[in-house]
Design a protein that fits this description.
Largest sheet: 6 strands, mixed
Shape: globular
Helix content: 25-40%
Distance between the termini: 29 Å
Number of domains: 1
CATH architecture: 2-Layer Sandwich
Strand order of the largest sheet: 1-2-3-4-5-6
């Protein structure tokens, strides 16, 4: 799969790509709860929010099947109370596909996202088994025009 623009990377935690051709962001999570503090994850979540605002995309593919842990309770609370509400209210996000695997912490994490977002009528969710399947599912939806540089 071609991911055209690497927006940012935190080694061994996450890589975030913008694929302007497909009109989506790709979040490839490797670690949800790195050793140390939650501050790195809070920083990442802020950068993800900024990426949605800067690109104007309405689709996201979250590759979570390689992640080897779940968010801490503090991060889960932040996602529920801050991250998702601001993404829903302040970005174009409407379609979310998540690559899940047999990893139980990842399945629990995805279940937590689904529980938060399932009642948000504006967002369609789908769990998939591969990046290819996620891209195929997302391709059926029109891409937002995105933002163009001044």
């Amino acid at each position: 799969m071609q991911r055209q623009d690497l927006l940012f990377e935190y080694p061994d935690i996450i890589r975030v790509f913008h694929d302007p051709e497909a009109g989506l962001l790709v979040h490839e999570w490797l670690e949800y709860n790195p050793e140390g503090s939650d501050n790195v994850i809070f920083e990442i979540l802020d950068r993800i929010f900024q990426a949605f605002q800067e690109t104007g995309v309405n689709k996201v593919l979250i590759i979570a099947d390689k992640a080897n842990s779940a968010f801490s309770p503090e991060v889960q609370k932040y996602v529920r109370k801050i991250q998702f509400p601001r993404i829903i209210q302040s970005t174009a996000l409407r379609y979310l596909a998540t690559v899940v695997g047999a990893n139980e912490p990842v399945q629990q994490q995805v279940s937590a996202w689904r529980d938060i977002l399932i009642d948000v009528e504006e967002i369609e969710l789908n769990d998939v088994l591969s990046e290819e399947e996620g891209r195929e599912w997302l391709s059926q939806f029109p891409a937002s025009p995105g933002l163009t540089p001044d």
